[in-house]
Here is the input.
Amino acid sequence: MQSPDTHTGLSPQDASAGPGNTRQSDWFDFTPLLGGVPVKAILSQRNSDYQGVSLADYRKVLAGKLGLPLQRIAVPQQVHGNRVETARPGHVHPETDGLFTDDPAVILSLQVADCAPIFFYHRPTGFRGLVHAGWRGLAAGVLTTATGFLRARGVDLCQTDVVIGPTIEMACYEVDSAVTELFSPTVWQPNSNGRFQLDLLAAVREQLVEAGIPGARINSVDVCTRCDSRCHSYRRDEELAGRMVAFFYIDRGIEKCKMQT
Ligand SMILES: [Zn+2]
Here is the structure.
């Protein structure tokens, strides 16, 4: 679903827009849910898309609008697996679905269309993470890997804040029994078609709590990617679906970073 360099599809906009031309409405901004400065946690909206460019080029355009230096951006080449890594700036991480760093200079990125973009932030140490999780990744244990990665580096999960960005809601996410048998019965329901509705958000939340993140520290947004026209959705647009790009960085010290309205 999230191959990294597919075409983004949909309507072109002014690709010549430079730093400072970014509208606030081009982004979902989760920064307040993570306590605000110094972090910035954002996800591009569908209305800022470009037609006929690769996702890599689209990411460059978005980064340019924000004034984010490309050489600081780490990119996971997501495969719906369970591997997470320490982010390397300017590097594409093969077969990786989550990146972490405690280096203020590193910019984390991610791309999604229905799967959940999950931001992790441990303010006391400055550890940040961005993890991509759909049903395959959850079943493969990507959140177990991600939380284990943090714990192994001395991060106290009880003090770690999490934001789950826009994802496909239960009513819009029909799956078959081969999927639901991988999950606890608390996160899916049978439907009238003889199939099932999977609550991806609940599954993410359940696995995070099981891993040791306090429920009170897990925030999410009430946005369904399939229903909300600001989002890309693979279920809605299938092969034509673009991707929303997340960036998670330290605002302080990045020159020209302007979020003008
Ligand atoms: Zn929906």
DSSP finds six helices and 15 strands in the chain. Residues 169, 171-172, 224, 226-227 surround zinc ion (CB under 6 Å). The helical segments are 55-66, 135-140, 142-152, 177-180, 200-211, 234-237.
